[in-house]
Amino acid sequence: MASTPLKLLLFLTLIHHLQSHSLASTLPKEALPTKSGYLPVNSTTGSAIFYAFYEAQNPNNTSLSETPLVIWLQGGPGCSSMTGNFYELGPWRVTASVKQNVEHLTLEPNPGSWNRIFGLLFLDNPIGTGFSIASTPEEIPRDQHAVARHLFIAIRKFIALDPSFKSRPIYITGESYAGKYVPSIGYYILKKNPRLPVSKRINLHGLAIGNGLTDPATQVATHALHTYYLGLINEKQKTQMEKLQTVAIELTKAGNWSDATDARSEVLGFLEGITGLATLYDFRRQSPYRSDWVEDFLKDPEVKKALGVNESMVFEGCSDVVGAALHADVMKSVKYMVEFIVKNTKLLLYQGQCDLRDGVVSVESWVKKMKWEGLEKFLDAEKDIWRVNGVLAGYVQKWDNLSHVVVLGAGHFVPTDQDVNSQAMIEDWVLDRDSFAIKKIKKLSADR
Ligand SMILES: *[C@@H]1O[C@H](CO)[C@@H](O)[C@H](O)[C@H]1NC(C)=O
Ligand SMILES: *[C@@H]1O[C@H](CO)[C@@H](O)[C@H](O)[C@H]1NC(C)=O
Ligand SMILES: *[C@@H]1O[C@H](CO)[C@@H](O)[C@H](O)[C@H]1NC(C)=O
Ligand SMILES: *[C@@H]1O[C@H](CO)[C@@H](O)[C@H](O)[C@H]1NC(C)=O
Ligand SMILES: *[C@@H]1O[C@H](CO)[C@@H](O)[C@H](O)[C@H]1NC(C)=O
Ligand SMILES: *[C@@H]1O[C@H](CO)[C@@H](O)[C@H](O)[C@H]1NC(C)=O
């Protein structure tokens, strides 16, 4: 637990020597989680999910017990939610400053933190990811059902940590491969809750996915056309891409899961090669996202201690072992789970516009194939212009339980690229206000 005397941490300065440059970082007391540590998911084996919780900075003045709790799940498979925490949406983010030609890592407050008015919980999911503990590699989930089973236990354990958590509305969010995790835990909760006594239910109020992979075979079919119309590839390359995409789709149809995953990687690898882009996560970027800063920061024994992590834990931004365990899961669709979810709770799908991996076109490709009674109305709904502080931020399309947001000026890591706008989006969506207000259907002139 993060119960280390705060005095010690207050002006803690950590110096590393890493090849040519040194990293100096401070961990101010405000940057420490309200609570952090482990949520055991298997008492027999000792496997446990690591969590870091940040209480709302301005909690609900009416009552804390009504302040929403937002849970964040990173993608991968196998990437740590500490990237989300310290690089995307957490209250303090790692950044680098150059002083006398030496790069220093420092923490800076995030003006767009998602814990401004909500409690924010980061989970390293599944076990084996980030600081989470997998007693044996065999215990690491190999499919979404196993992922959801562990997450359900972990979330219940978290809620039990504090009596005030019990009544708080819970929103589960995540990015990228969490386009699989978010539906699978949502589906699991919605199926399980009715069979549990009220006191044991998870108070789920909504789910949100950023730049998600959800229906992979449909999504992998979009890259050639998307990048062709962006002017990044020519007709001949488009044909080559389409061939590679077809291989991934056919292998998926055949249930040849592992090869299908590799075939998708080939599509993306080929695209990266022929375009020469620094990263497919954002076609505008001259260099990749710097989530490696988080990895360097969390290697520090003092930081680990402050987070309640055993110093012997080796932090990896993304775990190859977990990646391997879920390798055959990658191309499996969870669209049917989303179809069930949207009938039962609200769902937000948002994408940074400049992502070439799981961007707008990619997500819309499966949304329009969804089996949901509200789909026709959703597809017919106005695409509203969305402004934050008077400035164009993107577009919101909403019908009933389904909201879709295009975030302008953002790639795969939306909160990194548009911190304040991402905060406005999540707050307004959770609270059903502004662009996300529940529209009263206009009464016809009959009752005039
Ligand atoms: C806990 O571990 C035991 C032994 O590996 C296994 O039989 C059991 O299914 C596990 N429980 C959960 C919830 O994963
Ligand atoms: C609670 O009140 C404080 C002080 O007036 C304000 O700054 C904060 O935004 C309020 N919190 C919410 C959630 O409205
Ligand atoms: C605060 O709580 C009230 C109910 O007491 C609820 O209606 C409102 O949405 C909550 N607001 C926030 C910002 O959590
Ligand atoms: C999977 O596809 C590969 C070609 O990529 C093929 O060689 C292999 O036999 C297939 N495996 C199964 C079980 O169908
Ligand atoms: C940290 O992990 C090591 C190796 O697994 C173990 O021997 C040690 O007891 C642990 N320390 C704490 C404080 O849990
Ligand atoms: C939206 O969710 C609610 C439950 O919150 C459900 O009653 C309603 O039928 C859903 N709407 C549609 C169109 O599926």
What do you see in this structure?
With 448 residues, the protein is of the alpha/beta class. It has two domains: 6-214 and 286-436, Alpha/Beta hydrolase fold, catalytic domain (Rossmann fold, 3-Layer(aba) Sandwich); 218-275, no CATH class. The chain contains 16 helices and 14 strands. The chain has a ten-stranded mixed beta sheet with strand order 3-4-8-5-9-10-11-14-13-12, sandwiched between helices. Helix 3 crosses helix 4 and helix 4 (178-192) crosses helix 12 (335-344). The longest helix is centred in the middle third of the chain and has 19 residues, at 235-253.
List the helices and strands and how they pair.
Blueprint: H1 6-10, E1 13-18, E2 21-26, E3 35-40, E4 48-54, E5 69-73, H2 81-89, E6 92-99, E7 102-109, E8 119-123, H3 144-159, E9 170-175, H4 178-192, E10 204-210, H5 216-220, H6 223-229, H7 235-253, H8 257-275, H9 292-297, H10 301-307, H11 320-325, H12 335-344, E11 346-352, H13 360-367, H14 375-380, E12 383-388, E13 391-399, E14 402-407, H15 414-417, H16 419-430
Parallel strand pairs: 5-8, 5-9, 9-10, 10-11, 11-14
Antiparallel strand pairs: 1-2, 3-4, 4-8, 6-7, 12-13, 13-14
Helix pairs in contact: 3-4, 4-12, 6-7, 7-8
Contiguous helical run count: 16
- The shape is globular
CATH architecture name of the largest domain: 3-Layer(aba) Sandwich
Average pLDDT over all residues: 91
Beta-strand content estimate: 15-25%
Going by helix content, strand content and strand pairing, the class is alpha/beta
User: Could you give the order of the helices and strands?
Assistant: HEEEEEHEEEHEHEHHHHHHHHEHHEEEHH
Classified in CATH, the superfamily of the largest domain is: Alpha/Beta hydrolase fold, catalytic domain
Helix proportion? 25-40%
Biggest sheet, spatial arrangement of strands: 3-4-8-5-9-10-11-14-13-12
**Uncertain regions spanning at least 5 consecutive residues:** 1-25, 442-448
* CATH class bucket of the largest domain: Alpha Beta
**Whole-number tally of structural domains:** 2
Largest sheet: 10 strands, mixed
Rg, nearest Å: 22 Å
Number of strands: 14
- Separation of termini? 63 Å
CATH fold annotation of the largest domain? Rossmann fold
